[in-house]
């Protein structure tokens, strides 16, 4: 599946949530889509969650 199709699907989902549940549904769906994207990248091995958490806590730099 191409990234264009995935982007269109995510856009349709977020638009549906916005129309169905208002602003809070829109923001909630964006939050959960972001969390899902982070977890998906971590599962693929493209994101080091421990390193990201250390950088957010100030234990080491992000660069």
Show the helix and strand layout:
Blueprint: H1 3-44, H2 49-57
Q: For the terminal residues, how far apart are their CA atoms?
A: 31 Å
Rg over alpha carbons: 15 Å
Order of helices and strands: HH
Task: Give the overall pLDDT as a whole number.
Answer: 84
Strand percentage lies at: under 5%
- Share of helix among residues? over 70%
Largest beta-sheet characterization: none
Structural class: mainly alpha
- The unreliable regions are none
Annotation, overall tally of beta strands: 0
Compose a concise summary of this entry.
With 63 residues, the protein is an all-alpha fold.
Description:
The protein is mostly helical and 63 residues long. 81% of the residues lie in helices and 0% in strands. The chain is built from two helices and no strands. The longest helix has 42 residues, at 3-44. It starts with a helix and ends in a 6-residue tail after the last helix.
List key phrases describing it.
single chain, 63 residues, mainly alpha, 2 helices, 81% helix, 0% strand
């Amino acid at each position: 599946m191409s990234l264009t199709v995935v982007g269109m699907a995510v856009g349709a989902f977020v638009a549906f949530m916005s129309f169905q549940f208002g602003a809070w549904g829109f923001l909630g769906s964006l939050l959960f889509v972001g969390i899902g994207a982070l977890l998906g990248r971590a599962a693929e091995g493209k994101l080091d969650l421990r390193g990201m958490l250390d950088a957010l806590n100030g234990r080491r730099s992000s660069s």
